C-alpha cells in the first residue's frame, strides 16, 4: 500500500520502471535504454519499431538468416537515403535563424504529454531552453569547441511561466548571510577577484601517512592548522579577493575572519559545481594552504542576490557567458521531474544538432515517407543485389513490406483520438482525419494539414488510407 | 562423508550427448544465436560454445571434466568448442558400441579375469591406451603422409608473408562460426585491418600476436547504444581513465610513468614522526608542499607534459600539475602500466632525493594525448611514436547492448588466438614432446611415460605397423654423417621410444611395407659408444619423467633413430571450410584401418573416422542443394582418383587448430576412460572430485 506514484511519458522512466522477465524483451529494453543514454530522445519510437519489426517478421515466417540479410540491406537503403541530398524527408537546420531551432525544441517538449504544458507554456519553455543553449556556445571559435554548461535550478510551487534563464551561476545561500556580506571588495568597478578551493578548509589534519605521529603534551595540531588557515585568509585579503568558494567545508573562524574583511564565503558547493565555477570565472581550483599562486584566481563581473519564493541565491555574473542557470518552475515535484527530463532531452538534441545540422520531418511524415520509399525500392531492385543477398525477389518484397508496415505502425501510434490515417501518393506524408467520415466524400475536404505541417489540402495529392494495398510510387 | 561410484560409459555418453545437443544448434554458418540470462538480469547473446557450456553450471563431475577440456582447448585455439563436444559425444557413443559387443572385440579377448567389473575396467583402460597411441603416432603420420598434400598455404610467398585476401577469407570463415552472418563481414574486416595496422614488420608477427592476446582487455573498449557499424579501430592506446588534470599540448609530448604518490606523507610506514612544537609541524607541512612543488617544477623543466600514474595522486599534486602545465592520468591498472612499459621499453619513474635534480631519461614520447569521449565515458587517447614490434592500435566495439559488444570482443580475441595457432608448425616428434605452450601434449607425455612399461608391447607393435614411419639405423645414419649431436634433445626422446619398438619388430612376423619408397634398414649390431652419449643427453632432457623406464629400454633394446622426416603441419597451413578436414581425415583413417593389421587400432581408427563425419553431417543438414550425402559422395569419389576436394564455400581455416582439436578430443576421451572411481567429497568442494590418476591401475 502506498508508495511513489509517477506520471510520465518518457521512455527512460517507463522502461526503467518496468520489471521484465522475458529474456528477449530484456535484450530489447536494454538496447532501447542504451539508445536513450546516447541520444536522449526517441526511445519510444525505437521500442515500438523494434516490437513491430519482430512481430511483422515473425508473421512472414522465413528462415532467420534470410530475414536478417534482407533487413540489413533495407537498413542500408534507409540510411543511404537519409544521408543523401535527395532525401525528401529531411531539412537542414540553419543556425542563423531561430525558427527551425525553436520548432525542434518545441517538438521535443510537445512530444512529452506528461509534462502537462499548454501551448503558451510550451512556447515559453522552448524559448528559454533555446536561449540557455545559445548562451553556452562560446563566442570565439577555436579548433576544439567546448560547450558551456546549463545548470538547472529547481524551484517548485511556482507556475511554469515563472521560469527564467540567467547568464552566469546561481548558488543558493542562507538568508542570514545576505545582509552581512555586502558590499564586497572589488578590484575595479567591474571586476571581483575570486578564489576557488577544492580542498577542505575545515582545519582537519590531512595526509598523516602510514606511520605514527607522536605529539608532545601541550601541543595542539589543530591550533597549528588553524594558524595556517588564518595566514591563508590574510593572503587572500592582501590579494584583494572578494569571493571565496570552497568545494568542501570552511572553518568557522576563517569564515568569520574573511567576512569581517568584507569577503563573501561560500562553502560546500559540491564537486558537480566545480567545473562550471572554474569555467565561469577562469579560476583554477586551489589545493594548497600556503603560498597560493595569484594566477589561480578568477574574476567576476558582478555579484548580486536574487530571491525566488523562499530561496535566496547569489548570482555570479561572469564577463564571458558560457555558463547559465535555468530556473525551472513547476507546480509539484513529480511534474517538475518530468519537465526537467524533457528540458535536458531538448538541450541534448540541440547539442547533437550542432554536430549534424539536419532534422527530420515530425508528425509521422518521416515514417510514412520512408515506408513508401522502401516499398518503391523493393520493386525496382536490380537482380545483382538479390543474388548477392541470396534470396528471391518475392522474398525480398515480403520482407520489405513487413519493414514498411513496421515504420507505418510507429506513425499510427501518433494517432490517439481513434481517427483514420491517410497518406498521399505524391510525397508520402502522414494525414490524420477524424473517423466516421462518409465513404463517398472527397478526401481533400477532410484533410487540413499533414503531420509535419509542410503540405496542405490545397494541393491535389491523391490521398489513400495508410496500409491499404496500393501501387508503389516514387516519393 | 563421501560417496563413491564407478564409471559408467553409458552415463558418459548421455552426458556428452546432452552437452552436444546444447550447442548443436549454433554450429556452422547457418547456426543460430543463444541467449544466456544471468540471475542478475543481464543478458548475453552468444554463439560461443565455451560460454554456453561453462554457463550450464553442471553437477556431474565427468561432465564438468568434459567442459574443462573444452575450455582448455578453446582458450588455447580460440575456436572449436562446439565441434569439440559434438566430436566427443560421437566418439564416446562409438566406443560404447564396441564395449557392448564384447564378443569378438579385440579389447576383451585376452583377458582371463573372473570378475566382470574388473574385466570391464581393463577393457576401458585398453581402449584409453590405444587412443593415446593412436594420437601420438598414427594421427601424426596420417597427417604427414596423406592429408598434407591437400593443405594449402596461407603464405603468398616463402618469406612468410600473408596476403590480405587470404587473411580475410580465414577471418571471415572464423567469424562465420563465431557470430553468424549478421556482422561477420564487418568484424572480419575490422580484425584484418587491426592485424595489418598493428604489425610493424613481418618478423614481429609472433611478438605482436602475443601482446594482443595477452593485453586484449586493455586494447579494446565497448560502447553501448550505438550501431554495430560504428565499431572502428583507433590508432594508439585508449587508457580506460579520464584525465585528472588536462593541459592541452602540441608536438612531441614527453610522458612519464609513476607508480607511487609524488606527494610525501608526514610519516612513512614503520617510522615515527615526533612533533615537538607547533611551528615544527607547520614547517614540515610547508616543506612537504615545497617538495611536491619542486618535483613538479623539475618535471616541467624536463619538458614532461603527461604523468601516467598507477595510484591516486594527492590534490596538491594535481594543483601543481595544473600550474606547471602537466596533464595527469591516475589510477591506471597494473596491466595498462605493464603494456605501456612493454611497448615502449621504459620503466616507472620514482622520485627520490637523488634524481630530483638530475635529468629524467625514462620517458616515452607521444604524438598526441587527448581526451576521448566514448559513449558517456571519457577516456585518454594516447598515440606513441617509438614502439616495439607492436604498433599500438585499439578496437572500439559498438552495439545496442553490452551482450553484443561482449560477444564481438570475445570473438575478436578468439580470432587472434586462432591466428597465433595458424603460424605454428607441428613436427613429427611433437606427439611425444613436452612443449610448454601445448599443455595437452605435455600432460599426455607424462601419461604415456608413466604407462610406458605397460604399454610397451602395444607401442612397439604399433610403430612397427606404421607404414609411414621411416626408420633408419643409428649406425647407418652415423655413417651418413648425420649430425646426431645437433639433434634437439626432445627429438631424441621420440627416437628413444621408437628404439624400443623396432626391437619388438624383430620378434614379430615381418611386416609388409605399403609404400615402396619407404625403406627399413635394420641392424642388429650392439649399441655403439655414440649412442650412450645421445642417450645421456636425452635423459637430461626428460628428467621430470620416469627415467628408469627409458634407461631400461636403452640397455636392453637395439637402437634406431628415426631420420628427420618433414614437419606434419607447416606454419600457415589452411584448408577450405565446410567439413573438409573432417571428410579428409575420415577418408584416410578408413583406408588406413583397412590396411592395418592390428585389430585394436583398426577398430579405434574406424570409430574415430565415423565420429569425424558427424561435423559435416550437421553442417550440411540445413541446405537443400548441398545435402550431406551428395557432398560426401563427391568428396570421396574425388579422393579416389586423387583429385582435390570440391569446394562449396569460400573461406579457409587453420589446419593446426583442427589438428589440435582432434588431439584434444582424443586426449579427453582417454582421460575419461581411465577413471576407476568417482568419489564425491562434501567437505572440500574446491578440490578435484575426480580421481583420474594412473596410480589406481
TrEMBL record, chain A:
Keyword Cell inner membrane: no
Location(s), subcellular: Cytoplasm, Cytoskeleton, Microtubule organizing center, Centrosome; Cytoplasm, Cytosol; Nucleus
GO annotation, cellular component aspect: centrosome; cytosol; kinociliary basal body; nucleus
Gene Ontology MF terms in the entry: ATP binding; unfolded protein binding
Main location per the UniProt record: cytoplasm
Pfam (any one): Cpn60_TCP1
Record keywords: ATP-binding, Chaperone, Cytoplasm, Cytoskeleton, Nucleotide-binding, Nucleus
Any GO BP: protein folding
SUPFAM superfamilies: GroEL apical domain-like, GroEL equatorial domain-like
Keyword Oxidoreductase listed: no
Main function: Probable molecular chaperone that assists the folding of proteins upon ATP hydrolysis. Plays a role in the assembly of BBSome, a complex involved in ciliogenesis regulating transports vesicles to the cilia. May play a role in protein processing in limb, cardiac and reproductive system development. May play a role in cytokinesis.
Summary of subunit composition and partner proteins: Component of a complex composed at least of MKKS, BBS10, BBS12, TCP1, CCT2, CCT3, CCT4, CCT5 and CCT8. Interacts with STUB1. Interacts with BBS2 (via coiled coil domain). Interacts with CCDC28B. Interacts with BBS12. Interacts with SMARCC1, a component of the SWI/SNF complexes; the interaction takes place predominantly in the cytoplasm and may modulate SMARCC1 location. Interacts with DLEC1.
Family the UniProt entry places it in: Belongs to the TCP-1 chaperonin family.
Protein's recorded name: Molecular chaperone MKKS
Species, as recorded: Chelydra serpentina
Lineage of the organism: Eukaryota, Metazoa, Chordata, Craniata, Vertebrata
From TrEMBL, chain B:
Keywords: ATP-binding, Chaperone, Nucleotide-binding
Keyword Chaperone: yes
Keyword Nucleotide-binding tagged: yes
One of the GO BP terms on file: chaperone-mediated protein complex assembly
Record's protein name: Bardet-Biedl syndrome 10 protein
Organism: Chelydra serpentina
Highest rank taxon of the organism: Eukaryota
Family assignment from sequence similarity: Belongs to the TCP-1 chaperonin family.
GO molecular function: ATP binding; ATP-dependent protein folding chaperone
InterPro entries: BBS10, Chaperone_TCP-1, Cpn60/GroEL/TCP-1, GroEL-like_apical_dom_sf, GROEL-like_equatorial_sf, TCP-1-like_intermed_sf
Amino acid at each position: 500500500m502506498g508508495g511513489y506514484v509517477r506520471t510520465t511519458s518518457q521512455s527512460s522512466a517507463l522502461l526503467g520502471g518496468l520489471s521484465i522477465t522475458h529474456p528477449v524483451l530484456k535484450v530489447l529494453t536494454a538496447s532501447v535504454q542504451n539508445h536513450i543514454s546516447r541520444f536522449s530522445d526517441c526511445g519510444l519510437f525505437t521500442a515500438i519499431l523494434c516490437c513491430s519489426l519482430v512481430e511483422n517478421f515473425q508473421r512472414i515466417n522465413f528462415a532467420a538468416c534470410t530475414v536478417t540479410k534482407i533487413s540489413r540491406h533495407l537498413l542500408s537503403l534507409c540510411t543511404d537515403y537519409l544521408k543523401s541530398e535527395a532525401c525528401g524527408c529531411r531539412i537542414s537546420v540553419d543556425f542563423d535563424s531561430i525558427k527551425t531551432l525553436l520548432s525542434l525544441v518545441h517538438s521535443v517538449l510537445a512530444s512529452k504529454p506528461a509534462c502537462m504544458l499548454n501551448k503558451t507554456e510550451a512556447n515559453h519553455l522552448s524559448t528559454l531552453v533555446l536561449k540557455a543553449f545559445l548562451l553556452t556556445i562560446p563566442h570565439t571559435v577555436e579548433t576544439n569547441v567546448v560547450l558551456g554548461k546549463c545548470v538547472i535550478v529547481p524551484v517548485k510551487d511556482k507556475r511554469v511561466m515563472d521560469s527564467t534563464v540567467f547568464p552566469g551561476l546561481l548558488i543558493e545561500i542562507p538568508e542570514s548571510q545576505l545582509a552581512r556580506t555586502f558590499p564586497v571588495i572589488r578590484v575595479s568597478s567591474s571586476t571581483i577577484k575570486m578564489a576557488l578551493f577544492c580542498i577542505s578548509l575545515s582545519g582537519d589534519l590531512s595526509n598523516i601517512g602510514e606511520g605514527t605521529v607522536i605529539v608532545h603534551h601541550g601541543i595542539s595540531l589543530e591550533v597549528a592548522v588553524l594558524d595556517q588557515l588564518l595566514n591563508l585568509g590574510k593572503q587572500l585579503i592582501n590579494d584583494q579577493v572578494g569571493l571565496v568558494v570552497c568545494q568542501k567545508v570552511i572553518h568557522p573562524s576563517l569564515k568569520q575572519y574573511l567576512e569581517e574583511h568584507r569577503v563573501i564565503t561560500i562553502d560546500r558547493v559540491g564537486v558537480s559545481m566545480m567545473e562550471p565555477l572554474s569555467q565561469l570565472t577562469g579560476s583554477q581550483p586551489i589545493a594548497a594552504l600556503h603560498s597560493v599562486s595569484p594566477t589561480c584566481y578568477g574574476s567576476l563581473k558582478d555579484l548580486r542576490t536574487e530571491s525566488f519564493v523562499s530561496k535566496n541565491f547569489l548570482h555570479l555574473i561572469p564577463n564571458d557567458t558560457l555558463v547559465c542557470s535555468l530556473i525551472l518552475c513547476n507546480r509539484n515535484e513529480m511534474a517538475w521531474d518530468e519537465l526537467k527530463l524533457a528540458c535536458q532531452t531538448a538541450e541534448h538534441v540541440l547539442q547533437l544538432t550542432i554536430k549534424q545540422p539536419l532534422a527530420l520531418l515530425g508528425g509521422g511524415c518521416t515514417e510514412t515517407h520512408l515506408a513508401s520509399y522502401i516499398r518503391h525500392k523493393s520493386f525496382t531492385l536490380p537482380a545483382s543485389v538479390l543474388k548477392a543477398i541470396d534470396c528471391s525477389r518475392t522474398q525480398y518484397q515480403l520482407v520489405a513490406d513487413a519493414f514498411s508496415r513496421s515504420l507505418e505502425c510507429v506513425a499510427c501510434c501518433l494517432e490517439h483520438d481513434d481517427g483514420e490515417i491517410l497518406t498521399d501518393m505524391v510525397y508520402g506524408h502522414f494525414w490524420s482525419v477524424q473517423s466516421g467520415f462518409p465513404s463517398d466524400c472527397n478526401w481533400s475536404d477532410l484533410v487540413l494539414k499533414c503531420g509535419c505541417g509542410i503540405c496542405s489540402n490545397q494541393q491535389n495529392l491523391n490521398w489513400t488510407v495508410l496500409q491499404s494495398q496500393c501501387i508503389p510510387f516514387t516519393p | 562423508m563421501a560417496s563413491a561410484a564407478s564409471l559408467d560409459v553409458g552415463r558418459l555418453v548421455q552426458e556428452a550427448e546432452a552437452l552436444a545437443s546444447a550447442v548443436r544448434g549454433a554450429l556452422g554458418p547457418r547456426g543460430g544465436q543463444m541467449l544466456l540470462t544471468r540471475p542478475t538480469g543481464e543478458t548475453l547473446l552468444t554463439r560461443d560454445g565455451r560460454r554456453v557450456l561453462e554457463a550450464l553450471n553442471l553437477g556431474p563431475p565427468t561432465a564438468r571434466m568434459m567442459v574443462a577440456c573444452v575450455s582448455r582447448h578453446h582458450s588455447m585455439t580460440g575456436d572449436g568448442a562446439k565441434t569439440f563436444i559434438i566430436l566427443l559425444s560421437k566418439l564416446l557413443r562409438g566406443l560404447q558400441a564396441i564395449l557392448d559387443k564384447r564378443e569378438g572385440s579385440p579389447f576383451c579377448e585376452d583377458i582371463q579375469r573372473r570378475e566382470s567389473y574388473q574385466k570391464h575396467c581393463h577393457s576401458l583402460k585398453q581402449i584409453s591406451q590405444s587412443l593415446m597411441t593412436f594420437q601420438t603416432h598414427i594421427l601424426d603420420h596420417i597427417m604427414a603422409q596423406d592429408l598434407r598434400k591437400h593443405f594449402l598455404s596461407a603464405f603468398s610467398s616463402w618469406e612468410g608473408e600473408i596476403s590480405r585476401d587470404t587473411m580475410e577469407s580465414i577471418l571471415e570463415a572464423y567469424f562465420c562460426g563465431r557470430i553468424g552472418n549478421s556482422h561477420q563481414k564487418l568484424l572480419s574486416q575490422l580484425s584484418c585491418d587491426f592485424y595489418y595496422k598493428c604489425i610493424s614488420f613481418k618478423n614481429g608477427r609472433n611478438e605482436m600476436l602475443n601482446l594482443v592476446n595477452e593485453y586484449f582487455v586493455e586494447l579494446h573498449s565497448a560502447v553501448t547504444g550505438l550501431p554495430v557499424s560504428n565499431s572502428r579501430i583507433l590508432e594508439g592506446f585508449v587508457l580506460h581513465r579520464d584525465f585528472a588534470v588536462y593541459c592541452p599540448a602540441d608536438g612531441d609530448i614527453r610522458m612519464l610513468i609513476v607508480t607511487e604518490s609524488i606527494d610525501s606523507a608526514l610519516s612513512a610506514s614503520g617510522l615515527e614522526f615526533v612533533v615537538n612544537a607547533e611551528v615544527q609541524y607547520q614547517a614540515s607541512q610547508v616543506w612537504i608542499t615545497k617538495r611536491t612543488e619542486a618535483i613538479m617544477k623539475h618535471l616541467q623543466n624536463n619538458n614532461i607534459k603527461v604523468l601516467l600514474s598507477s595510484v591516486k595522486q594527492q590534490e596538491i599534486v594535481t594543483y601543481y600539475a595544473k600550474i606547471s602545465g602537466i596533464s595527469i592520468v591516475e589510477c591506471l591498472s597494473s596491466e595498462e602500466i605493464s603494456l605501456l612499459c612493454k611497448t615502449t621499453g621504459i620503466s616507472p619513474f620514482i622520485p627520490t632525493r637523488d634524481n630530483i635534480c638530475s635529468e629524467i631519461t625514462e620517458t616515452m614520447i607521444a604524438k598526441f594525448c587527448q581526451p576521448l569521449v566514448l559513449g558517456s565515458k571519457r577516456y585518454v587517447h594516447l598515440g606513441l611514436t617509438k614502439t616495439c614490434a607492436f604498433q599500438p592500435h585499439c578496437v572500439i566495439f559498438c552495439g545496442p547492448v553490452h551482450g553484443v559488444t561482449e560477444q564481438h570482443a570475445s570473438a575478436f580475441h578468439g580470432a587472434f588466438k586462432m591466428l597465433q595457432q595458424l603460424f605454428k608448425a607441428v613436427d613429427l616428434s611433437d606427439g611425444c614432446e613436452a612443449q610448454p605452450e601445448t599443455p595437452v601434449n605435455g600432460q599426455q607425455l607424462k601419461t604415456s611415460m608413466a604407462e610406458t612399461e605397460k604399454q610397451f608391447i602395444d607401442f612397439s607393435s604399433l610403430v612397427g605397423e606404421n607404414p609411414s614411419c621411416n626408420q633408419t639405423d643409428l649406425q647407418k645414419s652415423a655413417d651418413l654423417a648425420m649430425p646426431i649431436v645437433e639433434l634437439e634433445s626432445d627429438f631424441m626422446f621420440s627416437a628413444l621410444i621408437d628404439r624400443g619398438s623396432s626391437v619388438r619388430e624383430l620378434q614379430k612376423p615381418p611386416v609388409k611395407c605399403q609404400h615402396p619408397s619407404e625403406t627399413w634398414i635394420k641392424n642388429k649390431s650392439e649399441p655403439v659408444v655414440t649412442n650412450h652419449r645421445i642417450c645421456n643427453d636425452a635423459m637430461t632432457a626428460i628428467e621430470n619423467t620416469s627415467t628408469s623406464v627409458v634407461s631400461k629400454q636403452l640397455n636392453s633394446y637395439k637402437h634406431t633413430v628415426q631420420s628427420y622426416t618433414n614437419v606434419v603441419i607447416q606454419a600457415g597451413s589452411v584448408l577450405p571450410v565446410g567439413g573438409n578436414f573432417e571428410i579428409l581425415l575420415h577418408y584416410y583413417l578408413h583406408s588406413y584401418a583397412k590396411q592395418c593389421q592390428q585389430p585394436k587400432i583398426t577398430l579405434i581408427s574406424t570409430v574415430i573416422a565415423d565420429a569425424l563425419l558427424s561435423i559435416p553431417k550437421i553442417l550440411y543438414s540445413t541446405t537443400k542443394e548441398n545435402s550431406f550425402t551428395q557432398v560426401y559422395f563427391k568428396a570421396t569419389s574425388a579422393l579416389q582418383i586423387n583429385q582435390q576436394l570440391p569446394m562449396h564455400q569460400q573461406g579457409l581455416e587453420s589446419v593446426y587448430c583442427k589438428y589440435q582439436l582432434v588431439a584434444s578430443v582424443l586426449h579427453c576421451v582417454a582421460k575419461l576412460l581411465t577413471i576407476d572411481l568417482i568419489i564425491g567429497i562434501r567437505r572440500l568442494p574446491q578440490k578435484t572430485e575426480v580421481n583420474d590418476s594412473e596410480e589406481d591401475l
